[in-house]
Structures are given as structure tokens and as C-alpha cells.
Amino acid sequence: MVNIVIFGATSAIASATAKIFAEKNANILLIARNEDKIGAVLSDLKTRGANSVDSIIFDLSISNEHQNLFNELKQKMPNYDIALIAYGSLGDQKEGEEHFDSFQKEFETNFMSVVSLLTFLANDLSKRKQGTIAVISSVAGDRGRQSNYIYGAAKGALTLVLQGLRNRLFADNVNILTIKPGFVDSPMTANVKKNSLFVQPDVVAKEIYLAIEKKKDVIYVPWFWKYIMMIIKLIPEFIFKRLKL
Predict the structure, then answer these.
(1) Which residues pair with 199 in a beta bridge?
(2) Cα separation of 66 and 59, whole Å?
(3) 20 neighbors 203 (Cβ within 8 angstroms)
(4) Do residues 219 and 177 touch, judged by C-beta distance below 8 A?
(5) pLDDT tens for each residue of 196-216
(6) Least packed by Cβ within 10 Å: which of 44, 160, 180, 209?
(7) Rounded average pLDDT over 171-190
(8) Share of the chain above pLDDT 90, in %
């Protein structure tokens, strides 16, 4: 029986992924800050066949409270097999350019708080010599672009940390999965003009589930983003700096 804890469980991708695990009769622990939303997700997962569903109401961006969170997690689900970190924020790039406080807030949410959680999870699973940590990063972290380099910098740094953890924990039988979605039609991108490259959260969720099952290291979702970003990374800097991206 799979035991999975989902951080940021009310996000569109997280809740879509949770539905798949529920249909596989998993035990699921949901962690998010919105009590009403998490209650709705919890009820839905029960009807979909989850063996058990529990929740913790917590603002994950508050890193200095993570020890208390982890203590509660271990009480509710001491033998979790999988941890999925699926929260973040897509802040206002222009505001971050003008005000460092805004820049810092985005980094705290998308990078520092996630690294805090990773520290607890990695050390715990390393001792137990088993498990999977799956984390949503982004294609935005593959190269800095003027339209979103604050968000991209946080995700790029996160990707590097995940690479290091993968190397560190390989001998301990702990798999680290880096998930790099492209454009996803979700509340997070509500103010972004949509185009044909956007996909629905359930498309991403299916790929996440399969990648966890197959113990993959890195996935781009959908798959074609791997080649899009490969081309973007190959553009010489003297040309790239002139592009409006």
C-alpha cells in the first residue's frame, strides 16, 4: 500500500495527482493552508477510493515552523513512501524588479521554504534507506528570461539542489524526481494569455504518477518541452540577450 504526503495539496497539479493515487487505493496525507479547499479535496479523494485520507492545515512558506509540521507529519503518517512538493507562487516580475522585498518573498516561497522541507524529508528517508521525493520545478529555471527571471532563478536554484540531493541519496535508495512543467492552465497562470502550448493539470498529473512509478530522475511535461528548452539553451548569449522572451 502506497503512503503519500502531498505538500501544497490544493494546487491544481497536486490535486489532480492525488486523484490518481486515490484511485490506486493509496493512503494520502494532504498539507495546505486553505482549510475549505483542503476539505473539498479530501472529500473527493475518499469518493475516488483512497484507502485513507488525512490533512494538516499549514502555511508552507513559513520555514521556521517546519520542524513542528514535520513532527505532526510523522505522527499522522510515519511510514510515508512518497513526498510530493507541489506548491509555489508566480509573482509579479515588474514588482520584483523594482522592490527587493517582492523579489525576496518569491525566493522564500519558491526556493528557501522548499529547501527547508527537503532537508527534513531527505534526512528522514536517508535513515530509512527508501522512498521518493518528487518536486515541481519549472522549465523557467533552465534559462533566465526578462519576462520571468525572478521565478526562473528560484526554480533554477531548486533544480540544482535536487540534482545534488539525487547524487547524495542514490546510495541510500532514495529517488529524487525533478518535475519541469511548461505552461499549465491553472489558477497560478490565470492572468497569463493562453496559447496552444498550455495543457491541463491532469495531463501533468498523469506524467508525474508514471515518473514516480518508474523512479525517473527528471521529466519535462509535456515531453516536447525538453526539446524546446534544449534549443533555447543552445542560443548564444550575444543573440539571446537581444530577444524579447
Answers:
(1) 184
(2) 9
(3) no
(4) yes
(5) 788 999 999 999 999 999 999
(6) 160
(7) 89
(8) 90
Q: Can you read off the three cell numbers belonging to residue 181?
A: 512543467
User: Are 126 and 75 contacting, i.e. CB atoms less than 8 angstroms apart?
Assistant: no
pLDDT at position 73 is 98
Query: What is the C-alpha separation between 56 and 33, in angstroms, rounded?
Result: 8
Q: What is the DSSP letter of 221?
A: E
Separation between Cα atoms, residue 238 and residue 241, nearest integer Å: 6
**Does residue 28 sit in helix, strand or coil?**
strand
Q: Whole-number mean pLDDT of the chain?
A: 95
Residues 135-158 have pLDDT tens digits of 999 999 999 999 999 999 999 999
- DSSP strand E in 13-130: where? 27-32, 52-57, 82-85
Half-sphere exposure of 169 (CA within 13 A, CB side): 27
* Across 96-113, average pLDDT: 95
The grid cell for 240 is 539571446
Do 128 and 82 form a contact (C-beta atoms < 8 A)?
Answer: no
- Let me know: does 202 contact 157? Beta carbons within 8 Å: no
CA distance 208 to 189: 19
Using CA atoms, how far residue 98 sits from 101, 191, 224, 237, in Å, is 9, 20, 34, 25
Write the secondary structure of 136-184 as one string of H (helix), E (strand) and C (coil): ECCHHHHCCCCCCHHHHHHHHHHHHHHHHHHHHHHHHCEEEEEEEECCE
N-terminal to C-terminal alpha carbon distance within the chain: 45
